[in-house]
Amino acid sequence: MDESLRKIFAEAIALHGAGNLDRAATKYCQLLQITPNSSEIWEHLGQIYFEQAQYDQALIAIEQALELNSTQASSYYYLGLVLETLGDSTSAIQAYQRAIDLNFHQIEAHNQLGNLVLEQGNLKQAQAIYQTAIELNLTEPKSYLNLGNLWMIQHQIEQAIHTYQIGLTHAPKHPQLLTQLGIAFTAAQDFPQASLHFGTAAYCQQHYEAAIVSYQEVLKTEIGTIELYVALADCYQHLGIFEDAIAVYQRGLESYPEATELYQGWITTLQNTGQIQTAIQLAEATIQQSSDQSSDQNLKHIPIRFLNQRLLPILYENPEEIEHYRQRFSQKLTDLNQMVQMTNLEIERLKVSALQGISTGTNFYLQYQGKDDLELQQQYGQLVHRIMTANYPEWTVFSSSFSRYSKDSEGSKGSKSSRTSKQKIRIGYLSEFLSWHTVGLVFLGWVREFDRENFEVYCYHLGSEFDEITRLFQWYGDRLIHLPDNLEVVCQQIHADQLDILIFLDLGMTPQTTQIAGLRLAPIQCAAWGHPITTGLPTIDYYISADLLEPKGAHNHYSEQLICLPHLGIHYSIPDIPPLQRSRSDFDLDENSIIYLSCQSLFKYLPQYDFLFAKIVQQVPPAQIIFISHWNQQITNQFSLRLQGEFERNGLNFADHCLMLPRLNKFDYLQLNLLADIGLDTIGFTGFLTTLNSIACDLPVVTVEGEFMRGRQSTGILERIGVRETIAQSPVEYLEIAVRLGLDLNWRQAIAQKIRDQQAILYEDQTCIQALEKFYRSVTMSL
Questions:
Q1: Angle, CA of 207, 210 and 212, to the nearest 5°
Q2: I need a surface site. Which of 171, 426, 623, 759 has the fewest CB within 10 A?
Q3: Residue 408 has pLDDT above 50, yes or no
Q4: What is the pTM of this model?
């Protein structure tokens, strides 16, 4: 299969995995017109027909796959599924057995065979089959589920509970195991335990109302666990009922007054709802309370000290607040470093407590103050590295003796390890966002376009989401390892994979990736600009950025060695922009206004630039400015109130000129870009993917060329397509450009046409891939 067909096949698999069955089937049929003798494609098409309940067509497709290749165990497995659904159990059993004969480790076939045997009343044979499946893979939850169900049929309730519980040790969030365990506890008349597991099953499926009902049922008869209170509070937060979430934390603390997790949840909820001063007061009172008690109590609240240090507002009321909280952040970080330096991290309790402290957050909001964060990032990076070194000394220094490379071509002992020209360079990309997220969308091209003959690409996906984009990473890479919520297992896996280079795509976004980056799991470790800020970590050797995104002297902004790829540094596919199908009335936009769209996250808007919006509507009387709400309505309300004050100072009514839209799905978001007249970027921390989307919709975007890379992303995009007319050098010039675009229709249309004519240069840029490969080759020459 050539490269172009391979890409279509990858897209089909990704669409299939994401549930877009019709589009996936269309692509498979397209491929079969070109390669009609591909058994693999026929099998995938048969799977889709099966999932669409088109069983006759599924049978034809699977049988065609088997006619082309009768040695594929997976084809026999899907044949068994179709035959079983069509009611031919005897033939289905034969198909499953044939799948097992071809591949004894086909766990799914074992489980389906066991289910059919059980239906026929052969309980002992079914039990043996399920137990075989468990022996083949101790971590597969479905085998435990089936065996537990078998015990339930035989009214062996205790045995069923035991089996479900073992399964949950391997898959603690498995909804079916949790539900069946709840049913088993109900049968055992242990109703609180039943409610607990029903609640957890609902919680894991994001059915938060149902989870609340079950969890509250538990609390009617007994004191809940700390984990129950945390989960129940989280349910209320997902529903936007923050007062009830806080009440749950408080209730939990009545029973567990020293529970750090409950204090952390309470404090973080206050921060996320804009109650920053109350959050700080609670954090410091908790720390003071522990300081007044025994050393053990003081130890328990070390994580609160870390959380207290990181407490920053999501929104600032004025520039003076930025300085105040920045100074506080800096002082608390200094205090933390002194505390850790005086702490004996060889003591188990102390080093574990410090590890918990860096596991609950990052400096994420610091980067939105618009300042030079290098020194603060370095201080925090050293702190993380010291704590990780104390907890995992075995992963602190990469040993050259632990190498996949032979000692020499003859394999003799005593020779220096070196990579031969025939050995592929092994690259690892790590993120919690290898999914439908800016990081996954922007960096997918790095995996998709790489030279397969000279590189191996491993992808480590640490997030819980597994969607269409994740499947594309899975297909384009040599391996995708999905390991959410388990720091040590991730580190063990990366270390065992013996990478040459490990690239962290978005350091600073989540605590787990920051912790991992504080170790040395590969001889060369890099950060990419998924979160555009230096990491400050002594364990990160290179920072991969792009020429058009960086200012002169940019190396002074990084603790790492800066590597700039050509242009924007990404290989980004041509976006699929739908035709305009919505009207302004669908979004409550004014039909006669000039629509300015400013669609960045609200924490990017600094208060010193609020005046720009008021001045725009003053000078462009028919202007209407559109913002997108924060996920937390209280933050949206704070932002609206702040802008309302600015508008009132300029004799304007905020509600007459501005509209806060709810968060939109991708289709509606693109439709909004198509309906808008002008895009307004944020200053200090600009958009990137949002700007690419606006440009793809031919929308003129006004931006300011910032001092740091994170304030220059839109500038880089506009420079790339030669549209420099809307790049300002100051807020005053930004205002002038925005006003002119609003008043001068001809100029606005000319800019839009220029964008339309030149935007193709943004897409599928192979030069950055060639440069990235060259960089990887150069830094691995000495390995």
A1: 105
A2: 171
A3: no
A4: 0.89
